[in-house]
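Session log. Operator J.P. requested a structure for one protein chain; no other inputs attached. Running the standard single-chain path with token output.
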Amino acid sequence: DIKHRTLNIEPVKLFGTDYPTKDGSCVRDYVHVIDIAQAHILALETIEQLSGRAYNLGNGEGYSVLEVVEAARKATHAEIPVKISPRRAGDPAVLVASSRRAKEELGWRPKFPELEAIIESAWTWMKKHPKGY
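Structure written below.
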């Protein structure tokens, strides 16, 4: 968890640097919690018409682990150390969600599509709530 590691300056473990990605680290899709909550509300509002439907939620953009660390460094103004570790078995190089169905059926669109905005928002909240809720 970036908050814990940033405040305690513990290294973020980077599992593998030899993936076939632009910087060798895994790529994942990140979604702001507000966007996830909004999708849940929209799904509840349409539950009578679309009951039992499954939706993938994502921004459709992948960011590497190293890009996440760099964005966290920028938002927190902290030098977040990285510890390179071996790959974990079963970790795919890239996982990015298609939210096409959620967009078409629910009208869902992420309000925080950029990684920097997601991390900046999370960091602002964490600074206001240093002990959590």
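Operator note: The chain is about 40% helix and 10% strand.
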